[in-house]
């Protein structure tokens, strides 16, 4: 079906739904610092499996760059270095897993990991930060980001006690670098299709719109509200992945 001048084999009502979901998810990330893929990937997978996760990986790049640049003065430079050091082997593990394990099995594993993480962090006062923990969080983010397009929960849980500007800007940098690495790797092994590129082009406009709308909202959520939002969105990711794994 021709949609906005592109030959896309998905109905217009479904594409309009996808655009609305993408706009909402982008606004959520602009407010909390992550959430675009967490909201969009599971929901769009249920609308039509072809809508996710690669189109979200592609459209998330400008979103993360804008989020990081907007509050660049609050970036946690030291944390970024060690997390990215862990993300490199995580990316390699993700590429290996996607080649040998079914998507449903991976969704279940990652979904359960996220839910356990949310349960633990919802009761523990804080996580002691050190280089090893930062690298492990980066590795888990690399694996889940490559496999399902959802790399936010491990990093969001790591920064759950940080201020809103630090969460948004730091995660923006981490996601931007991770997305570039993921796209390059997926492209090299033929895991980015022409349909993925077309869908990414169509969904880019609502993503930019959602990011713009978030500038009027992000100052309203801080402190306990931000912490609750981080945990709630992480739980949403876990539930969404489990639902996608069991969807016929």
Describe the structure.
75% of the residues lie in helices and 2% in strands. It is mostly helical. It has one domain (2-246). It has a two-stranded antiparallel ribbon. The longest helix has 25 residues, at 164-188. It is globular.
Q: Main traits of this protein?
A:
single chain, 248 residues, mainly alpha, two-stranded antiparallel sheet, 10 helices, 75% helix, globular
Shape: globular
β content, as a range?
under 5%
Number of helices: 10
**Using only CA atoms, what is the Rg?**
17 Å
- Spatially, the strands of the biggest sheet line up as 1-2
Largest beta sheet, briefly? 2 strands, antiparallel
List the helices and strands and how they pair.
Blueprint lengths: L1 E2 L2 E2 L4 H21 L3 H12 L6 H17 L6 H24 L2 H19 L9 H18 L3 H7 L5 H25 L5 H21 L9 H23 L2
Antiparallel strand pairs: 1-2
